[in-house]
C-alpha cells in the first residue's frame, strides 16, 4: 500500500511539473507576441503611414518605406557660407554643425 501512495505522489509531482512547463511555454508565447506587436508598431510609426485594419503584418514593407524616405531626405551636398559646394558627408556634417553653432552663439 505504501508503494501506491508514493507512486501517486510522484504522479502528482510530474503533473505539476508538466503544468509549470505549459505555463512557462504559454508565457513565452505571450511575450513573443507582445514583442512582435511592439516591433510592428515601431515600423508603422517610422513609416508614418495609416495602418489599415486588414493590412498585412509585414514589417519588411514598412522598413522599405523608411529606407526610401531616408534616402530622399539625405543631404547629398550643401553650400557652405563661402559659397563652396560640399559633397563629402564629413564636410556636410561639419558645415551643418558650424552653421548652427554660429546661429546659437549670436
Question: Averaging pLDDT over every residue, what do you get?
Answer: 77
| Unreliable stretches | none
The dominant shape is rod-shaped
Distance between the termini: 94 Å
Give the radius of gyration.
Answer: 29 Å
| Helix-residue proportion | over 70%
The count of helical stretches stands at 3
H and E string: HHEEH
- How does the major sheet shape up? 2 strands, antiparallel
Spatial order of the strands forming the largest sheet: 1-2
Share in β-strands:
under 5%
Structural class: mainly alpha
Number of strands: 2
Please describe what this structure looks like.
With 106 residues, this protein is mainly α. Helices cover 73% and strands 4% of the residues. It has helices at 2-47, 59-73, 89-104; strands spanning 78-79, 85-86. The protein has a two-stranded antiparallel ribbon with strand order 1-2. A hairpin with a 5-residue loop joins strand 1 (78-79) and strand 2 (85-86). Helix 1 runs parallel beside helix 2. The longest helix is centred in the first third of the chain and has 46 residues, at 2-47. The protein is rod-shaped. It starts with a helix and ends with a helix. The mean pLDDT is 77.
